[in-house]
Amino acid sequence: MSETLVRFGIIGCAEIARKLSRAIALAPNATITAIGSRSLEKASRFASANNFPPEAKIYGSYEAVLDDPDVDAVYVPLPTSLHARWAVLAAQKKKHLLLEKPVALSAAEFDTIIEACESNGVQFMDGTMWMHHPRTAKMKEFLSDEQRFGQLKSMHSCFTFCADADFLKNDIRVKPDLDVHGALGDAGWYCIRSILWATDYKLPKAVMALQGTVLNEAGVILSCGASLYWEDGKVATFHCSFLSNLTMDITSIGTKGTLHAHDFVIPYQEKEASFSTGTESAFDELVTKWIQQPSKHTITTDLPQEALMVREFARLVEAIKAKELKPENKWPTISRKTQLVLDAVKASIERGYERVEVGN
């Protein structure tokens, strides 16, 4: 029996929307129904270039997509400064919402989005793709194994890429009126999420930005890092940047084991991804050695992680439509916690690297 197709509309023709439109096409329970841009010509070019189905509707405005009764859900890849306006309107139009990250300019602004989603009974999810790869669940199994991993003591995350001159001058992610968080919002979001994921989404007590933040002339963050602290003694650090070679590492260190992944944001290969774990170690005549060599674990998948994200989102939407279930609260809760930490790191940078307590 074939799955019911959730009908997606896309508002905006951002580069990331190319990847998501392909993901919607690959997901077995989703289809592209409409695309809207600020100009009909741009939307038409985007649909043609990305092999939209011939029956997909082409609109010259975002509003037209939201007003289309054949659209069940919308994917919103607009600049962060536009999220609150269009996400709230989408929810008010009863459209389920897949929103690019960072989700908002602040947690307070995000609360406005979620209030609209909750009051209109629509599902929310942000576009953090790696969360939906089967490797992520397998890594979590190891971190939850007290016999092999023990208790988490520290977590380190890094996502950097070296942007070219055109990106650093013209990309929306370096424009203060479009994406004021810069590298912190774009790359740092993934780092913060990975740290929260490892700590079972327990918010840190406080954060302290690391000195050495790089800003462009408009004051947008191009490179930064931070330390996070929990009341039980756990610590974490992250570094994100538009100015360094591509690196996508996470390291989780427990009392008995260690986990490493070197491509956590985007796997090196679309249909498989690996991580390594180390467990027993010891001293041998004052020299550290492994009792058992670290092991590599490779997880395969039939669909790329972005299509798995779309499939899960569409599954939740269909459950609401067909079974009248309530929207799943897990995803907005995780998004909000990520935003809270991001807000605190940005505040620490602005206050001269002061320690800042994380809000609730």
TrEMBL record:
Residues 6-125 form the Gfo/Idh/MocA-like oxidoreductase N-terminal domain. Residues 144-259 form the GFO/IDH/MocA-like oxidoreductase domain. GO terms for molecular function: nucleotide binding. InterPro entries: Gfo/Idh/MocA-like_OxRdtase_N (IPR000683), GFO_IDH_MocA-like_dom (IPR055170), NAD(P)-bd_dom_sf (IPR036291). Belongs to the Gfo/Idh/MocA family. This is Gfo/Idh/MocA-like oxidoreductase N-terminal domain-containing protein. It comes from Morella rubra (Chinese bayberry).
